[in-house]
C-alpha cells in the first residue's frame, strides 16, 4: 500500500505534486476547490475548514504537510504606513494575535492529536513566508521565499538565491523584493512562489513556458498567462486574482519531492 500523506490548506497542490511523484497516496483539505483552466488540485480533495479537523482522523498518515494562508504576514512585513499600523494594533491585542496565528497553530494541534491516536510520531512540515517568523517563531529552514517549520529534514536541497522585484498578491500595484531560488545546477526551479514560469527577464517582465517549454516574455502587469491573464489593476475578488494567488502559493516541486522522499517509510 502507498503511504498516506495529508495536505492541509492544499490549494492547487504544490506539496501534493511532489508527494504523488514520490509514490504517496495524498488527501488534501481546503475550504474551496481551486480550478483555473487547466490548473486544479491533482489528488483527492476534501472541502473542509482545517480548523474543524481532528488529528485522530490522520492516525494512519506517514506525513502531514501544510501551507496556511500567508497574506496577512506578507502585508505586515511591507514598509507601508497602513501595514505598520495593522502590525502595531495586533501586537497590542491578544485576541487579534490568536486570530492571526490560529491556522498555523491548528497544524500543530492536528499533528499532536494524530500522534496521540497513532501511538508514534507523525512528521509535520509547515510552509509559510519569512514575515510569519515574527508571530510564530523562527523557521527551521528556507528554500528562497519558502520558509519551513516543524519536522524539517536535517539535510535539505541547497539553492543559490538571486533577488528581484515581482508583484505580490496582497493587493493591486503592490511589488515586493523576494528571493528566487535556483537549483545548484543553475536551472531555474519551479519555485518562484508558484508562478507557472519564473521571472527571467529584467524587472517588470516575466517568462512563462509554452507547451513545448519555450519561455515567453510577458509584461510585468501580467502575473501569469493562460488561462487567466491578470494585471496590477485587477480587483482583489476577481477569479484571475484568486488564480494568481493560488499559483504563487504552490510549493516548488524540488522542495516537495525532497521532503516527501526523506519522510517516506522504508518498509
How are the elements arranged and paired?
Blueprint (H helix, E strand, L loop, with lengths): L3 E5 L5 H8 L3 E6 L4 E2 L2 E2 L3 E4 L13 E6 L4 H6 L4 H11 L2 H25 L5 E5 L4 H4 L4 E3 L2 E5 L9 E8 L7 E8 L22 E5 L5 E5 L19 H10 L4 H11 L4
Parallel strand pairs: 1-2, 1-6, 2-5, 6-7
Antiparallel strand pairs: 3-4, 7-9, 8-9, 10-11, 12-13
Helix pairs in contact: 1-7
Note down, in words, how this protein is organized.
This protein is an alpha/beta fold. The chain folds into two domains: 4-158 and 252-263, Rossmann fold (3-Layer(aba) Sandwich); 160-247, no CATH class. The protein has helices spanning 14-21, 71-76, 81-91, 94-118, 133-136, 239-248, 253-263, and strands at 4-8, 25-30, 35-36, 39-40, 44-47, 61-66, 124-128, 141-143, 146-150, 160-167, 175-182, 205-209, 215-219. The longest helix has 25 residues, at 94-118. The N and C termini lie close together (10 Å). The relative contact order is 0.17.
Amino acid at each position: 500500500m502507498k503511504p498516506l500523506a495529508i495536505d492541509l490548506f492544499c490549494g492547487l497542490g504544490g506539496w501534493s505534486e511532489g508527494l504523488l511523484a514520490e509514490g504517496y497516496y495524498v488527501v488534501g483539505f481546503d475550504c474551496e476547490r481551486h480550478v483555473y483552466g487547466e490548473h486544479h488540485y491533482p489528488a483527492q480533495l476534501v472541502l473542509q475548514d482545517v480548523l474543524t479537523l481532528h488529528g485522530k482522523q490522520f492516525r494512519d498518515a506517514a506525513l502531514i504537510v501544510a501551507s496556511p494562508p500567508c497574506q496577512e504576514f506578507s502585508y505586515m512585513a511591507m514598509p507601508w504606513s497602513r501595514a505598520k499600523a495593522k502590525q502595531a494594533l495586533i501586537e497590542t491585542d491578544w485576541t487579534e494575535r490568536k486570530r492571526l496565528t490560529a491556522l498555523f497553530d491548528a497544524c500543530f494541534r492536528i499533528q499532536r492529536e494524530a500522534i496521540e491516536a497513532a501511538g508514534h510520531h507523525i512528521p509535520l512540515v509547515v510552509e509559510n513566508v519569512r514575515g510569519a517568523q515574527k508571530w510564530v517563531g523562527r523557521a527551521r529552514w528556507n528554500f528562497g521565499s519558502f520558509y519551513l517549520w516543524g519536522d524539517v529534514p536535517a539535510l535539505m536541497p541547497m539553492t543559490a538565491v538571486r533577488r528581484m522585484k515581482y508583484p505580490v498578491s496582497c493587493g493591486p500595484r503592490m511589488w515586493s523584493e523576494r528571493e528566487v531560488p535556483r537549483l545548484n545546477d543553475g536551472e531555474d526551479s519551479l519555485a518562484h512562489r508558484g508562478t507557472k514560469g519564473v521571472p527571467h527577464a529584467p524587472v517588470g517582465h516575466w517568462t512563462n513556458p509554452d507547451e513545448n517549454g519555450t519561455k515567453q516574455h510577458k509584461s510585468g502587469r501580467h502575473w501569469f498567462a493562460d488561462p487567466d491573464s491578470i494585471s496590477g489593476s485587477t480587483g482583489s475578488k476577481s477569479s484571475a486574482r484568486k488564480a494568481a494567488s493560488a499559483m504563487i502559493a504552490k510549493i516548488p516541486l524540488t522542495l516537495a519531492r525532497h521532503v516527501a522522499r526523506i519522510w517516506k517509510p522504508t518498509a
